[in-house]
Design brief:
By secondary structure, the protein is mainly alpha-helical. 81% of the residues lie in helices and 0% in strands.
Length: 225
């Protein structure tokens, strides 16, 4: 992407009220990651939890903090500024990090020692890197938009491609992870439609927070078990 294209590409238009809601809602979302770091660190310090399990939780927590912090800054920055354009790209990129980050503790803990751990984890992070590269190249290109948005869905529902891996989760864990995936997927509808509908992007933020909280509950159960 050339600099001229970068500064001239159209940007989403949100009202002041929408932007306030957008960044406040994701300040709340970022606190989830902070809680997760504190919670998992305390448990790791007072129990015999494996280092790999703890590291998996840290990756998950950091990916949450990154996504919600970048999103908060993007929506809080001055309209039309270069910084806002940069953070818009980063905002989209961190979605891939959160999806791969969510799968990391699932694979390292629930699927530890299985072939699915390696396959699923590698696929998720390879797709995350690919998605980020596409966003950086030109996130407004129509073909790239289709591919990059499809990657969100493919990565998010990657677990479904491995029925045998699902059996490594208990019912509660599977329901929580599935429900979070549904929340994110419903949110994508509002994300795609947000350009022409007031408050749709804010509704997308709500579904993101719901998806993160619900999946966090499932991942915590995996961590504790």
């Amino acid at each position: 992407m050339t600099y001229q294209k970068f500064i001239s590409d159209p940007m989403p238009e949100y009202t002041k009220g929408e932007e306030i809601f957008n960044y406040v809602s994701h300040i709340v979302g970022g606190s989830i990651g902070i809680f997760l770091i504190i919670f998992s660190s305390i448990l790791f310090g007072v129990s015999d939890i494996k280092l790999s399990s703890y590291l998996g939780m840290l990756v998950f927590a950091v990916s949450i903090i990154l996504l919600y912090t970048i999103s908060t800054l993007y929506h809080a920055l001055k309209k039309g500024s270069i910084a806002k354009r940069v953070f818009r790209i980063l905002d989209h990129c961190t979605i891939y990090l959160l999806i791969a980050g969510t799968y990391t503790p699932i694979c390292l803990i629930a699927m530890e020692g299985s072939i699915y751990c390696t396959i699923l984890l590698v696929l998720e992070w390879v797709c995350a890197v690919l998605g980020i590269l596409l966003k950086v190249i030109d996130m407004n290109n129509k073909i790239i938009k289709i591919i990059s948005t499809s990657l969100y869905v493919i990565m998010g529902w990657g677990l479904i491609a491995f029925p045998a891996a699902i059996k490594l989760l208990n019912v509660y864990q599977f329901i929580m992870i599935l429900s979070g995936g549904v929340a994110y997927t419903v949110g994508i509808f509002f994300f795609i439609s947000g350009k022409n509908n007031k408050w749709y992007h804010s509704i997308f933020h709500i579904f993101c927070c719901i998806g993160t909280i619900v999946q966090m509950l499932g991942v915590i159960d995996i961590f504790l078990s």
